[in-house]
Amino acid sequence: MNPRTLGELKASGWRSRSVRDEIRENLVAALKSGRSAEERWPGILGFDKTVIPQVENAILSRHDFILLGLRGQAKTRMLRLMTNFLDEQMPILEGCELNDDPLAPISRRGKGLVQEHGDDAPITWIDRDERYREKLATPDVTISDLLGDIDPIKAASRKLSLADEDVLHFGIIPRTNRGVFAINELPDLSPRIQVGLLNILEERDVQLRGFPVRFPLDVLLVFSANPEDYTNRGSIITPLRDRIASQVITHYPKDLDIALTITGQEAWTKRDTVDVHVPRMLSEVVEEVAIQARESELVDQASGVSVRLTVSLMENLVSNAERRALHLGQDSTTARLADLFSADSAVTGKIELVFEGEREGPEAVADRILGDGVAAVFARYFPAPYQGGNPDKEAKDVYKPMVDWFAAGNSASVTDEDAGLAELEQVPGLADLVAASVDPAEKDASLAAEVVLEGLHRASLLAKERSEDGFDYSDMLKDMFKGM
After folding, report:
1. Looking at residue 50, which CATH number applies to its domain?
2. Rg (CA), the chain
């Protein structure tokens, strides 16, 4: 049982440590135990060789630090995981606003308790999660919010002088004493408020409105921000940047398998109504959509394309397949390419467009990016229709029967309601190409057939026209003459 008085705490042998020493020692123990980066930072993927070592170096150096990166790069999640390196519980003097260390109180109330009760001073214990607090920086944040202010109502109700320390109302940072405090989107904090943080970062104390009492705080300050050059909303003032000891750059997933794992981890795909199977090929398309968006000249690359795009897109895709299965009375279904294009609402809200993109419109840009994602996966699995601008004989021979079939006046429809996809099986050579290129165990032959048709459309060999419930593929030349 945890000690409940100051005397019991002293007898237990408990020792005081600064929050930086505490986090450092617990990280050292985790490293010595051989725990992997995934075990030390659960849910953080793709950072084990880049970001995590730099963050751990900052912890070992007892540094305040900032994570710089575009949106959707797990910055806030990493900051919140700092609690994993705090002790499970910490003793404080009961009833003190500043989480006073029983062996070294800093507030008037804490010092008064020890002076009045001695070893009988009451102690309570707080969990590690209660020692982490964060604030989203917005232009309306004030010094009072962060540090505190004089409370005239308290002074009047208690008949205290404004020179009395008991009239102080502490802000969120002093109340996080002996813990971790995070400020998200630091550049959005107005410059005069950033100045208020300088003393805490360097001198480790806080002073309120010139009040003659200074409080030495024990707080680890951590921050997140978009790189200064990438935001028009604000910037980090030079003195504050200078006082933040370590700066760590985050990034988007650099490996397809890691990206797939992240989306699989974050997206809600297991529904209690219908079992929706999402083939790996379609999962790759979802990841490629984000990759293509990050390379598109129609998208503002300065703002970034969040990982949340792939998560939302996957969830909407699954929901469309679920809706189709419920309508058809099915207990299970396989997601299709039509489900992807029906989920474009997950893309339009996740990308910032440049002027050219605004002219085309968000729906048209989303449709183009979705098609670019399909084209990238098509190139990964199937022969290229053209190489270096010249027809490749082998590739041309593969697709010639299909193109000729469409040139003869035939068309194929990929609809949202079509469950059997029997119409695609009529396209000569399509089933053989799919069988030769796709592992049957993936159960995505129908999807692969759709990817081939979309790939041929993206290569300007087939025309595609959106219908009310899907797409119609036809001969490109015929479509051009129809347009004339």
Report:
1. 3.40.50.300
2. 30
Same domain for 259 and 228:
no
**Which residues does 30 contact at the CB level (< 8 Å), separation at least 6?**
39, 40, 85
pLDDT at 164 over 80: no
pTM over 0.85: yes
Tally of domains in the chain: 3
* Residue 96: both structure tokens together: 């003190």
pLDDT at 214: 73
Closest CA to 145 of 173, 165, 166, 167: 173
Lowest mean pLDDT among 84-93, 139-148, 174-183, 449-458: 139-148
- Cβ 276 vs Cβ 321: under 8 Å: yes
Q: Torsion over CA of 170, 171, 172 and 176, rounded to 10 degrees?
A: -30
One domain, residues 177 and 116: yes
What are phi and psi for residue 387, nearest 5 degrees? -135, 125
Rounded Cα gap, residues 455 and 378, in angstroms: 6
pLDDT (tens digit per residue) in 241-259: 999 999 999 999 999 999 9
Q: Assess whether 387 and 363 both reside in one domain.
A: no
Is residue 1, in this structure, part of any structural domain at all?
no
Task: Tell me which of 82 and 213 has the higher pLDDT.
Answer: 82
Domain that holds residue 438: 382-484
- Which of 213, 232, 249 is the C-terminal boundary of a domain? 249
106-150 pLDDT, tens digit per residue, is 888 899 999 999 999 999 999 999 999 999 998 889 888 898 887
Q: Are residues 100 and 222 in the same domain?
A: yes
How far apart, in whole angstroms, are the C-alpha atoms of residue 419 and residue 423? 11
What's the farthest any 2 CA atoms get from each other in the chain? 98
Rounded to whole angstroms, the Cα distance separating 208 from 149 reads 6
d(CA 234, CA 90): 37
